[in-house]
Each structure stands twice: as structure tokens, then as C-alpha cells.
Amino acid sequence: MAQKQKIINDPVYGFITINHPLLFSIISHPYYQRLRRIHQMALAYLVYPGAVHTRLLHSLGAYHLMCNAVNELRAKGVYITPEEEMAAKAGILLHDVGHGPFSHALESQLLQGVHHEDISLMIMKIMNTQLGGQLQMAIDIFTNNYPKKFLHQLISGQLDVDRMDYLTRDSFFTGVSEGVIGYDRILKMLTVHNGELMVEEKGIYSIEKFLVARRQMYWQVYLHKTVLSAEKMLVNLLQRVRDLIAQGATDLHTHCGIDFFLFNFDGVMNLDTLDKFCKLDDGDLLVAVKKWGTHTDMVLQTLANRLLNRQLLKINIQSDPFEADFVAHKLQAAATQLGISLEEAGYFVFAGEADNTMYTTNKEGINILFKDGSVKDITAIDDPLINQTISAPIKKFFVCYL
Amino acid sequence: MAQKQKIINDPVYGFITINHPLLFSIISHPYYQRLRRIHQMALAYLVYPGAVHTRLLHSLGAYHLMCNAVNELRAKGVYITPEEEMAAKAGILLHDVGHGPFSHALESQLLQGVHHEDISLMIMKIMNTQLGGQLQMAIDIFTNNYPKKFLHQLISGQLDVDRMDYLTRDSFFTGVSEGVIGYDRILKMLTVHNGELMVEEKGIYSIEKFLVARRQMYWQVYLHKTVLSAEKMLVNLLQRVRDLIAQGATDLHTHCGIDFFLFNFDGVMNLDTLDKFCKLDDGDLLVAVKKWGTHTDMVLQTLANRLLNRQLLKINIQSDPFEADFVAHKLQAAATQLGISLEEAGYFVFAGEADNTMYTTNKEGINILFKDGSVKDITAIDDPLINQTISAPIKKFFVCYL
Amino acid sequence: MAQKQKIINDPVYGFITINHPLLFSIISHPYYQRLRRIHQMALAYLVYPGAVHTRLLHSLGAYHLMCNAVNELRAKGVYITPEEEMAAKAGILLHDVGHGPFSHALESQLLQGVHHEDISLMIMKIMNTQLGGQLQMAIDIFTNNYPKKFLHQLISGQLDVDRMDYLTRDSFFTGVSEGVIGYDRILKMLTVHNGELMVEEKGIYSIEKFLVARRQMYWQVYLHKTVLSAEKMLVNLLQRVRDLIAQGATDLHTHCGIDFFLFNFDGVMNLDTLDKFCKLDDGDLLVAVKKWGTHTDMVLQTLANRLLNRQLLKINIQSDPFEADFVAHKLQAAATQLGISLEEAGYFVFAGEADNTMYTTNKEGINILFKDGSVKDITAIDDPLINQTISAPIKKFFVCYL
Amino acid sequence: MAQKQKIINDPVYGFITINHPLLFSIISHPYYQRLRRIHQMALAYLVYPGAVHTRLLHSLGAYHLMCNAVNELRAKGVYITPEEEMAAKAGILLHDVGHGPFSHALESQLLQGVHHEDISLMIMKIMNTQLGGQLQMAIDIFTNNYPKKFLHQLISGQLDVDRMDYLTRDSFFTGVSEGVIGYDRILKMLTVHNGELMVEEKGIYSIEKFLVARRQMYWQVYLHKTVLSAEKMLVNLLQRVRDLIAQGATDLHTHCGIDFFLFNFDGVMNLDTLDKFCKLDDGDLLVAVKKWGTHTDMVLQTLANRLLNRQLLKINIQSDPFEADFVAHKLQAAATQLGISLEEAGYFVFAGEADNTMYTTNKEGINILFKDGSVKDITAIDDPLINQTISAPIKKFFVCYL
């Protein structure tokens, strides 16, 4: 009479229930299980020591919110078939499955720009074949080719369960209470109108809260200056490795999975290279960093050991660009201090811009459904806080130095 | 006027304050920073996906409770000098610094029985030399050679801040609410009498709660049958590697830090070997497991891939030993299924006992100070719940199989 | 398309959803709304200042857990019709509707022993008539005359949603973390076997936790000695009023709703007296106490003002009866101090027993369903903690004095 | 050696410690204890059923935050004498002691405009006399006549512990998570510069969060339209009573403490009238409302019973004034429905404005202390969110009707 059911403890939501063979198939797949070994927040744990939660847990959390969202919408009379329900759940479980370890650094330095979203889709297609087509509707929803647009919007939109979970979860594990959103209230305010996901009028303050919390998380966590410094150091470290290889160095092998991507990857993802990619996890990069910490190249060694032992580059951050003089002065100081060339000093001293483009993609807006039946985009609402939060340029300038 | 102060976000306690140069020296030491890369709960995250918190965070948490304990005791008139305060804080920060990755498996298979507590002391002594003797009092307290016994008892006793933090923290990250103890209330109930740490009479119910919560954590988390299965698999995996090496295999190098302990370690910890030990972290073992997943030895390969992809051994658990017949039958089945010898099947099918000896060492008891000035050990209290919880044998039998 | 739905904020569970006309009818009834004006925990707020939550909120909370329980059971294949679902929800909303202000004191002193459970049933019957019989099934379930016994057991049993809510809620509002139970986990462990409510085998530790938490709440909260002192003072205060009336006093009218029950009630509850009862709330008693604080009778005035201003009687509590000498000595001292007779001093100095009979009625036991299909009562489980918790006599002796 | 110490459980902060004879004297005073019988949030519990916490608990909570604030400031080297510490704690305990039941309605209708802050000061002076001058410094701080301005600012300023507690506490008890502020982080960001309370530069995001949370609480809770409706009904109810008395009615006595203020109070607060005021609590008004529910005047009876049974007036709310036609139409409808005159219908149908002036008094601004030593008011910070939150007009128009 009863179907197989598994309950997973989650410190954020209490219990997450898995109760369908398709879901079990996805979760037990090695490509999914590897998400256990990849930090959701990359190097943020160097600032927020509790932020070591994994991409697997985020995926399960977003799935849990999807379960709740489906229940709430159905209770309001929105028609969702059992197949659609399962497809939406499968889709959200797999929405981030293409992430690799320290994605930001990895994609720019080792993957030649192949984007994690494309990899997610490739993995979904592979699994779909393995599962005899059971994931086809999930793929259609994920790629926004399914007629009921709101299902796609729940997975990927300005107010999707992905964001609701990561803001909630990252806030929970960092201990930054400013990022708490009222996810349960937002879910209760969702509705569907003309096939599109909407927020009921009385949910405006919850949306306001959501947008402000997101903004707080950008500046306090995701773009926290020390986190930024650590991530830039990792990028530069990998850049140095590639530069040395380009110069002919032969002693940079790590004997781990990333060697392929350092030495042999040509930018083409096929079944074979994807499988290699799916064997990578945080451990490979951390072991490599430890190894490079004993390399004879002073730049490489210093970056590696400093990253490992949390002796991060100093970083200043402000609303305007930094003076060229300031950067030049720091460059000279670094060259002198480490006994390296000015060019090499550029691995330690550099200026740049931080913005939130990695977090706000051009997902569609948030629609509000008013009691009189009219629909407005959130940016058209006469709410000064919302307008400012949305329109405020989230961009700052930084400079790192020794 | 103001001294340097750093605030660390902790999802459990909110904020942890570091405000003394000695504490900064300890925390920034590479031997301490490596605790960022070691899971507090080893493989428990295979069952509780949120349980990926690190030994560094536990150490900071225990330190935070020590800060509170010192404040509470002083408010009750207990005299603690600034030097003693700093020594107690340094001692608790370092109490677990000798842990390696997956300590249980590591110590039994690779360290030839060298215990993490001995390593902690060695590291403290090395740091003490580096810091010009500033850690001497901390070492005296840690080794219980300091006259004010209660300071040692706060670090290492039946009711120390170590336990208070790990029960609280493990409960928090696993999401197992049954392990919640009222640590803040317990701290308020602490007092000192004749130089010994005591609990005030009115704190008895809090102690009862503490003991019951600890018991719940044993069975629901630390000795959870699936966690047990995973840990035994890791032990067997390392055993298999060692057995193959003993048989002359030469293709088991991982090119990571554990190679030294696999091939060269003679059981003697000196400055050099300790330094090698202090370079290990979870990443080394996980990378090794991945590597061994492609080895030609069927036993090794199978154990490695199953552990990696969470295809764990089945496990039964009960109060009585299992029938020999049952085990023999399962052995035979495994041999047949994998096409291996009966002896090799023993890596997959085996019986054993689980008890809590790894959690309850012979630390001294808990003393209750009554209003009339008398002192009783907790086991002498007429409280049926406490007696049962303490005296109940915590031991069960298990059998793992394919 | 969507039905009317109302969301109520609850600090404990987040949101409670009301979504059926029958539920709206119940909740908007004046007999139900009066529960807003009655403290769930009577005078416990004199010790736990946060414990001022109302019987209405507890009722809504228990209803919320019932909603969850129905969902969980259905997900396991238990068949529950929409009518049964609504009857169970109506039943739990009304299970405590018969409580008056400070029930313990009220029932013993003013209601001549009419019990709140009988009043609940009377109110349900009146509402049933008003609602054209819509509550008949709820009444059948409440009185255990409905075939599916598990529905009754969810409302009134050793592990009902009533208890789950009040332990959770009282723990929340008092701030006594020791009373936290894992209600969400318990709900997930519930099942139905042969028409009876059962707990799955793997839920044993949750039940253990539940029983221990309940025990902790008895001693730390419900039978906290200062709470006990306050409640006994209120009983004695009302007793004094009745004694003075019996002696012919004519100046004790309060001009509030309790006058009828002080002067005219003959112990018979009919439509008229029940309506008078349903107009009472905490305000009536508190106004009466204030009024009596200016009465000329020294005993009455002193009891009233002391209760009002939290100058409570001292209280000792222990496992054995108190010596008669001790009580006699305190009686004499009180008579001297207040200038009253020894008999009158008995309002301030008295011994008694406290036990948990007001909390553990003879509700049926908790059944555990084992994986092999066998069923055992919880008391037959070989778990020392459970046995001790259940069998331990919860009875203590107290003496109050000035 | 140890001083007397009392620990109070608080669901919000865990434990509140009272450890000085002066504090015990204040808390045990009947004028303070009466705050146990006055809801912090007046009628808001009709919308948020958990919001029944008392003014006493808020007072204790604000005191707790003051204890923390003093500790934090001292840890940063700010000099605070033990006398100043005690005065600040006494001052915050008493800052709201002048509140009566349902202050908003009471002050406008029964107290002839005597303001609760003036009453607080009067009570402090009375207690000061009773305590032999021990409260003099507290009074000086409260009235901002003490040289160290930051002590006054902690009690009464834009960022005082009063606000920090009530936002935190009201958010907790209503269950409106949008009102959560990071009070612990704000406290850690406080500092003193030139004798004034400041926020460190790195605390700007916490202040942003604080301001947004406050805004959310205005609209979701304090000025929630249904709360507004209930409070306006209570004001109109008392207005009707006064109008009837003015017309010569003689049957409106309640035999409770408010009779004096209905019939005899001349607007002068002296020792005697203040004592009468200090005997009032929520119970008096609720009993009065019940009594008036049986009065023959249709307007009075209807208002009373509707308020009692939560049959509140409908209310519309918007950014612009309502059309006079709409109000006129509703007035006519109410007169017809209840069979009363158009003038009498004005008790049920009326328009008005709601703004936050009752919450934002002209307390001084929030100063930010930058790392370079400069000081800026928060309104001068280049942060669009802060500017909008502060400058946005918080004013809306409402109309109530049957």
C-alpha cells in the first residue's frame, strides 16, 4: 500500500522527503553524488567558517521548496499533473548538476569558458538516455520549451526556488541573519495567471524583503571583500600554472583529475570529457594547491601557500576606481618584497571591478497580480524601496595587494 | 584605547570574538588553519548531508563557550587571573588540533595507533616554542598539571565545553533536534567548590537533559548504522591497500600526502613526521579513494567506488550477536556475486560490535553542589533517568554485507 | 477556482492555513473567540514571563499538526475521506473549548467539579445544532465512537497532536528548551495498523525523546514550585471568598461574570449557565482579585494583593512528606505575623502533594509497529530510559508558608 | 562571595540575569509588576494571535540588551562606572513604566492627553523617593541631563535598546520574520566618540537592515489594516461612552478601575490619581467592554460585541484619500443596516490617515564613525536604500465601514 519513502534530515527545513523511483535514480547517480564533494560557496568558508555546505544539499533544499510550491499552487486550484510535478522536481534536482569545484575560477581558467548551465543540460540529456526518456519533460521545462511557463519560472526566474533556497541556506550556514527571507510566506503568495508565475498583491512586502535580503547577501557575503580576494587569488594561481605550462614547464602535474583540463582539454565537451569533468571535486583542486605550494616558482609557491594558510591578499574596495598611482606603488612594493619582476608582481597586485552580474542574470521579472485582476511588473510598483533595490547599480571597484 | 578585535560569524552562536594577540597567533598558524579542511564528523555527511562542518569551527565554538564559562564563573566570584583566562582559551582552541582526516580510520590504519590527543600535545609544545613559552600554562592545564583543577575540567571532563559544543554543533548541522542541550543554562549552573568544577543543585534537570541528549546522539548519529557502515568501509579500504602493499603491489601511490604514511611511516612522530602529518587533510584521502576506484584489484576498486558513490554496504544492527550462519551465508553470496575468494569477501561481509567507547573516555564524573554545601557525584543522585542513562550499556552488534 | 483561504501567522510553526467554511464557522464563534482571553498556562507567567500564550493559539497549533498528520498518513497510503479529515480538524479545534480561566482553580472552587472536558462536549453539541449537524462526525471521533480509532487517538491519546502542540508551544513560550520535542519527526513516524495509530520501529528514539521532554516539562514548568505556590494561592483565595460568603458576607460581589458562579450556580450546566460560563475569561478573575485586595478581611486582602504583586508564598518541595512540626511552627509564625487565628493562618501555611495526574490521564498507550509486522506497547520495549520515564512515580511533597 | 542572582527565562534571548539589589527593588514594585497585565502590542493579537507578550517582558528584554551594550562598549575601552551602569539599567527597566492598558486609546479618550512618557518620569521620581535617591542618576540619564550623552542615547535614540528589543520581540511573537534585525551584530558595531553613541563604518549594512526591518514592521504589523480597524473601534467605543455620559447616561459604570477616569478625572496627575492609574490593566478594559456589550444603546452594544468577538469593521487602505462619495455611501448603508442615525453611523464608518508618527519621534539621528575618524549622520551616507527608507513618507489613508 505504501510506497518507498526516504526522509533526509536537513538543518534548514527539518525533513526532506524522497518518494518516487525517478528521484531515487537521479540522487543515486554518481554524477549527482559528486555534488557532495563540492562546496556551494567555494572559498567563502575562509571568511564564514560555517559556509561549507555542499551543492548536493542546496539541490535537495531547492527540491524541497519545489515540493511545497507545487502543493501551494494546487491548493489554489492550479492544475499540475503528476507527470509535470515529477518533471519539475527532477528539473530542480538537476538544475545545478553541471557545477564543478570552485566554478568561477574553474570555468574561466580550465574549462575554456564552457558554462556550468550548458554542462547541466548535457548531464540531464545523458541521464535521460540512461533512464529511457523519463527526463524529457524535465528537460523541456528546464529549457523553457514546455507550454506551462510557470514550471520553468519556478526553476529559473527572478523568484525561483533555486534562489529562495540559496539565499536561505547561505544565510543559515554563514550565520548572516540579514539574508533571511520569508521563503514560506513567499511560497504562500505565489499564484498562476495566464500560465505565468505571479505574486499576489498582498505579498509585495515579502518581495521587498526578498530583494533587500538578496542585496544584503551580495555585499556582506558573495562580494565580501575578503571572499573576493581569495577567489581572485585562486584565479591568479591557476593563471600562473597555465602561464608556466605555456612557457614549457613540465613539473606541474598534480596526478589528479585536473591534469587533463590543464594539459589536454580542447574546449569540446563530449561524453568522454564530460565524464572526466564529472570526476572532479574540491579535493582535486585543494590537493593541487598543496602540491604547488612546494613548487620552485616563487609566484606559484607563494600564491598556493598563502591561499592554503589563509594569508590572503589585502583588499580595498570603494565606489570609484582606484588611482593608477596607488596600484603602481603597490606593484613596486610587491616586486621588491618578494624579489620578483614587476610583471610577476601583477599576480599579487591588481585592480578590478566587482558586480553582481554573476548573480543576476537576465531572468524575467517578477509579476504582481492585483486583486482587480491586473498584472504589473515589480519595477512598475510604486514602492521606493523596491525600485532603489532593483535599479541601484551593484558595482564596486577593488584593488588587491600584499 | 581599544584593542584589536575580530568577530567571526558562527551559525550556532551568532558571533565569536577574538581579541588577544596570542589567540590570533594560534588561529593563523598553518597547523590550526588545516582544521578548515577536515570534517568534524568524518563520513557522517553520507547520512546527514548538512554535517560537513569542520574541526576548525568546532574548535572556535568550544572556545566561545569557554569565554562564556569564564564570565559566568567570575560573576559568581570565582577568581580567575587574566593569564589563566588566556591559557584556558588557548588550551581549548588547541584541544583537538591533533586530529587528522577521518581520524578513526586514519589512526587505526595509517598512524600505527598514534593517538590524536598525543599529537595535540606535541603540536602545542611546538607552538609553545615558536611563541616563546606563551602556551606553557595552557599545556599545564591541558595535561591537568595546573593547581586549579576546574580549568582542566572545563577543557576535558564529563561536562566540558568540548562536549557542550560538539553535541550542540553536531545536532545543529545534522538537523537532529534530539541532540539539543541547553548549553547556556548548563553554563549558568556551573560553579567552583574546593577548586573543582561543580554543578549547582538546581541544574540537575539540565544535566539530565544533557545526558539524554548525548545518548540520543550516539544512537541517532555517531553510531547510526549507515554511518557505521561507511566508516567500516573506509577502514577496510585502507586495510586492503596495506595488504596489497604487503603483498608487493607497487601501483598504489597516490602522489598525495598519505603516501608517506602508507609506505614509509615507522610509528615515530618527530618534528619532521609531525609536519608531514599536519599537511594531510580530507582532500588527500578523497583523492586517493577516487584513484583507487580505477585500480585493477576488484576488492579495492569496488570498495573505493562504492564509498565514493554512496553505494554502501547493507548493515543490520541488534542487541545480540548475529548467528554465525547468517554471516557465513552472506560471505558466500558476496564471493559469488563479485567473483572473489571467501577471504576477499571478508572485506564486504563482517560482523562486529559498536559501542560508545570512542566517545566516553574515563573522564571524571560530574559533581553536584547542594545548597547545604554537600557534594555528590551525579551517579549518586536519586534520579532514575540519570542512573539509567549513565549505567545503560551502550553496545550493539552489527553485521555488514553486500 | 480557488477556495477561500486564510493564513494565520504562528511564531511556532510559521503559517497556519484555514481553508474550509466549517473551520471558519468554528473559529469565528464567540465561544471559540473567548479562548483568546484565556492563558494556556494559567499563572505560570509569574515564573516564565513569556508564557502568556492563549488557549486559542494552542488550539490552532494542534489543528495545524492535525493537518500535517493527515497529510503524512495519506502519503503512506492510509485512507481518510475528506469528511473524516474535516471532522478530525474540527474535533481538534474544539477539544479544549470548554476550558475556563485558570481552569484548575475555577473547576475546584467555582464550578463544583464540572470538568472542562464535559463542557467541551456540551459546546460541541450546541455548535453542532447551530451548524445543522456538520459536527456530528467530529463529536463521534472526539467521544471515540467512530470506527477508525486512529482519528480519536490523534485527538486524544498518549501521542496526540494536543500533547505534541502543548509541549512544543509551552516550551517555546517559556523558553525552556528542555521541552523541545521533535514533533515533525514524530509525525513522520506515525502509521496506522489495524485501524490503530502506531509508531514505526525507527521512531523509538523520537518517542524516548518525547517522553523525556514531557518529564522535564513537568518538573521544570508545570509543577515548578513557584508556579505551584501561585496556583495554590489562587485556590485558597477563592476558598476564602466562598467561606466568607458562607459566613454571610455581602460585600464580595465583583460585578463581573464570576458573581453568578460565586453566588448562584447549583452545579447544573444547561444552555443558560453554559452561556454564562462562556462569557468568563482571565480578565474577570484578575479584576476580582484586584477588587478583593481592598476588602477588609485581612486573609482575603493579603492573599489578593500578594498574588497580584507577585509576593508569593515561600514553598519547599521534596520527595518525602514534611514533618508536622515544621508546618505547625510555620502556622504559628504566620498567625503571629499577620495577627490572625491559627485557622486563618491555614490559608498561608499548608502542606500537600504534587503529582502529574492532571497531565497524564489514563489515555491508552503508545504502540510500536515493528518491521516484521509485530506490535508492542511502548512499555514492553527493552529500553531502560523509556521504562524509567514511564514508571517513575512523578509525585512530590510541598509545603507553603509565609 | 557570590552575590544574589536571579535568572529569568526569556524565549527571545534565553536567559536574563538580575544581580543587584536596586534592580530587585524596581522589579518587585507593584507599579512595575502591573506591566505583567498589559499587552505590549494592544489589540494586535486579534491579527497575530501570538502577540500577547507583555510590557514587563519587553522591559526585561531591553534591560538585557542594555547589559550587553555596556559589556560591548567596555570591551572597546569606553569608560562606564558601576554607578552609571546601574543607572542605565534602572533607566531602561523603567522607560515604559508609564504605559497604561491599550495606551493609544486610553491616552486619547480617558487620560485627557496625559502622555505615558510623562507618567514614566513621575513614577521614576516616586520610586526614587521610596528608594532614598538611588534612582537619581537614572532619572538624569532618562531626561538627558547626564553629561555622558551616549547613556541617554542607549535608552532613547534612533538606535536604542528599546527599539532593538521591541522590533526583535514583536517580530518573534507575531511570527513576522521580516522584522528580524541583527541586534547582536548592531550591538557589536556600537562605539562612543566624543561622548556620543556611534556606529562603526562596517556596521552600515546592519543599520540598513535595521531600518528596512522597522519599515516592514510598520506596514505588516503596527499599521496592519485590521489592527488599525480594531484600535479605531476601541477609540470609538470609548468615545461613545463619553458621549453618552455627556448626554447624562447613568448606567455606564463598570465597577472597575476605569470608572474614576471615565467620570472623575480632571487631567491632573498627582500621587493619588497616579496610584489609581497604576491599578489599571488590560483586564479592566476588557471587562468593561463585555459589560457594555449588554447595554441598551445600539451603537455601544454593537461596537463592544463586535470588538469582543472579532467581528471587526471592514477597512480599505490606500496611498490617496478616499472619495467623499464612497464614505457617504457607506455611512448611509450602515445607518440603514443598524437602524441608527447618520451621525451614529459615524462610529462605524469613517476615514482617516495612518502614519508612523506614533513610532518615530524626533529622536536624534544615527551617527556613523568612519575609520578615518570622520562622523556622518546616516542620512548623509550615499546609500540609496537607507535614504529611501528614511525619507519615504510613511502615511496612508484608510476608511472603515461595516
From TrEMBL, chains A, B, C, D:
SUPFAM superfamilies: HD-domain/PDEase-like. The keyword Membrane applies. Residues 51-176 form the HD/PDEase domain. It holds the Pfam family HD. Gene3D superfamilies: Hypothetical protein af1432. The chain crosses the membrane at residues 12-32. InterPro entries: dGTPase-like, HD/PDEase_dom, HD_assoc_2, HD_domain. Keywords: Membrane, Transmembrane, Transmembrane helix. This is HD domain-containing protein. It comes from Parasediminibacterium paludis.
